[in-house]
């Protein structure tokens, strides 16, 4: 696929079905994403897959915060420090 085609055909999904995503699909997505290029091959990503009660608690907390403040909060808390920061000059 050409990059221009990829950019023009991408889309954002904001409404989701209630059906769970099959585990094999999640595994495939993570496997493909792990091959993505990163700056200086640092591979700084962390993947968290949540389902069930944990996902429900996250949704409830996000909704409550949004209703209380009127502002979206996209911060991922508890991630910790980026491993590359300990290197000199970073």
Give the topology, please.
Elements: H1 3-9, H2 23-33, H3 52-69
Give the structure's gist in a few sentences.
This protein has 90 residues and is mainly alpha-helical. It is 40% helix and 0% strand.
Explain what this protein looks like in three dimensions.
- With 90 residues, the protein is mainly alpha-helical.
- It has a domain at 18-37 and 44-74.
- 40% of the residues lie in helices and 0% in strands.
- The protein is extended and about 45 Å long.
- Residues 84-90 have low confidence and may be disordered.
Order of helices and strands: HHH
Helicity range: 40-55%
* Approximate strand percentage: under 5%
The rounded Rg comes to 17 Å
Q: What is the strand tally? A: 0
**C-alpha geometry:** extended
Q: Average pLDDT, to the nearest integer?
A: 81
Uncertain residue ranges: 84-90
Distance between the ends:
35 Å
Number of helices: 3
User: What about the largest sheet?
Assistant: none
Structural class by secondary-structure content: mainly alpha
Summary keywords:
disordered C terminus; 0% strand; 3 helices; 40% helix; mainly alpha; 90 residues
């Amino acid at each position: 696929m050409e990059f221009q085609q990829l950019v023009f055909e991408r889309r954002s999904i904001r409404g989701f079905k209630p059906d769970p995503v099959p585990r094999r699909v999640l595994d495939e997505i993570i496997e493909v994403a792990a091959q993505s290029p990163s700056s200086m091959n640092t591979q700084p990503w962390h993947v968290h897959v949540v389902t069930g009660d944990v996902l429900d608690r996250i949704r409830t907390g996000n909704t409550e915060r949004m209703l209380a403040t009127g502002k979206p909060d996209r911060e991922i808390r508890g991630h910790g420090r980026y491993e590359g920061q300990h290197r000199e000059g970073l």
